Amino acid sequence: MALMGFGSARPTQWFKHNQGAVPSLVALLGVALFWVVGAVGGIGFLRDASSPMTMLTGLYVMLAAVAVSIIISTLALTDLTRRYSRPRTRR
């Protein structure tokens, strides 16, 4: 972690120098939270579906949510990789 500068600076200084990375980090945190909630029991409401059409609609909504979460995490990881892979120049 010290290579990226996490260990040497206080959190306020890190935030000041890396404000552009915060939206990507928040997006990754949101996707991780979505997957944790889904793994813990977010799919339980399909058990109580009153009709097959309700279950099918729920499955399509979940499929769309999973696809969007994969797209968001890919874009966020690409942004973070692009930000931290290029050499840093001192200002």
Describe the structure.
With 91 residues, the protein is mostly helical. It has one domain. Helix content is 66%, strand content 0%. The protein has helices at residues 11-17, 22-40, 52-85. Helix 2 (22-40) runs antiparallel to helix 3 (52-85). The radius of gyration is 19 Å and the shape is elongated. It starts with 10 loop residues before the first helix and ends in a 6-residue tail after the last helix. The mean pLDDT is 81.
Q: Please, how many helices?
A: 3
Output the structural class: mainly alpha
Distance separating the two termini:
22 Å
Helicity level, as a percent range?
55-70%
Order of helix and strand elements from N to C terminus? HHH
Largest sheet at a glance? none
Strand content: under 5%
DSSP summary, beta strand count: 0
Q: Whole-number radius of gyration?
A: 19 Å
What is the global morphology? elongated
**Segments where pLDDT lies below 50 for 5+ residues?**
none
Q: Could you say how many structural domains there are in total? A: 1
Task: Name the average pLDDT.
Answer: 81
Structure summarized in a few sentences:
The protein is mainly alpha-helical. It has helices at 11-17, 22-40, 52-85.
